[in-house]
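Quick one: structure for this chain?
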Amino acid sequence: MAEAEAIGTIGDGKPERPRLQGPDFFCFGAQKAGSRWLFDQLDAHPDFWMPPIKELHYFNRPSSRKEMAQKVQDLTRDLKTFNRKRQKNHYRPLRQQDLDFLAEFLSLADHPVNYDNYATLFDRKGDRLSGDVTPGYSALDDERVAGIAAHFPDARYVFIARDPVRRFWSQVCMHVYKERIDAGMREKTVARLLSKSNYQKRSYQSVIFARWKRFVPADRLALYFFDDLVADPAGLRRQIIAFLGGDPDKPSGDLPPDFNRKDSKSSVPMPDSMKHLVAARLAGELRACAAAFGGPAEGWPKLYGL
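Got it. Here's what it folds into:
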């Protein structure tokens, strides 16, 4: 992917994007395709200031954003203890600007979506880059996507695509880990999940990307692949940070490019019978991704004999 033309300079003369009112970028998915990895790399990078919680859900789940902001705000009442725990787990310490963000974010939770109020949340970034990494935005409808693109026309938009079968199974494993699904599930359970709206809205990545592509200018929309995160995390990190306007030569604190916060979380092996079931149901999407995305996606159907 060719990098868009850069504007201005940063630090030691590296190219940068102009700082914007509101977020400089959005990452709208895909869910279970590396957005946590990306947030961690940006959160620790000196050219970025990221919100103190990863997924803001401002445009899709107001009750969730209130719950998350309140939880973090409660935890930070003893900030020294909270920050010691954060640093032990490779999170950056929170500062006053983060607490101010949480307070304002919480104040917006009971109000309808307001793009101007949302934009002011990012005033705390100063001269650094900042953005909203919420893969749940992949499920937004046309009207909301059009609204975001219209109000933030100069922002950058990032989508990381993943083999639909493995992405679906990772979503299942997440719900098993959170005890929303029994680990001893059977094929009929998987078939039922394939038909549930919260799985369907996130499974059809070719449709998701096409929706955002209709409203976002091509030079501000970038497609990446989870395959490249697995094969070359340093290379993918470099590509994305450069696209967003940061300096890819600067390290993200002490985090290596292949840092995976979720390594310790258990996953459920995908039995062959379920793999064939999911691949058969998503066969059309596998082919659609191969045609629309190219690159690694061209090999996804072959993984399942399609």
